[in-house]
Design brief:
Blueprint lengths: L1 H26 L1 E8 L4 E7 L3 E13 L4 E7 L4 E2 L5 E7 L3 E9 L3 E12 L4 E4 L3 E6 L1
Antiparallel strand pairs: 1-2, 1-10, 2-3, 3-4, 3-5, 3-9, 6-7, 7-8, 8-9, 8-10
Length: about 140
Amino acid sequence: MLLRFVLCGLAICGLVGVEMSSLAEAAGRSVHRGKTAQGYPLRLAMQGEKSLTLLRFKADLDCRDGSVLQLEESGFLPTRIRGNGSFRDTQFGKTDTVRFRGKVTAAAVRGQVRLEDRFGSKRIRCSSKWIKFNVKR
């Protein structure tokens, strides 16, 4: 009986340790919201001053057939922030390419994002110009 209590106690301590380490990781990450020049919301996460991750944003793309494609993008990998606060990255999806660049300051993250995508059975090419964004910290 005593062995059961000891094993249960160890299991609970192990779970609490996992919870505490998850909280410590989450504590180093902060989520910020802003807007793009197209008026859509943009969310990003900062992992201290070392990296940032685009979380989600929308953009309008102009297509070669004359139509407009509205995309909601998410699922990005972290991007390293250089010592001077600047960042630059290109990430590739199944049909799209997202380029972004900018600078992190104490007050804000400012930058630009550019998208290219192919959609439909005819794989129509759509792209945006550089879209500015501003996120307050």
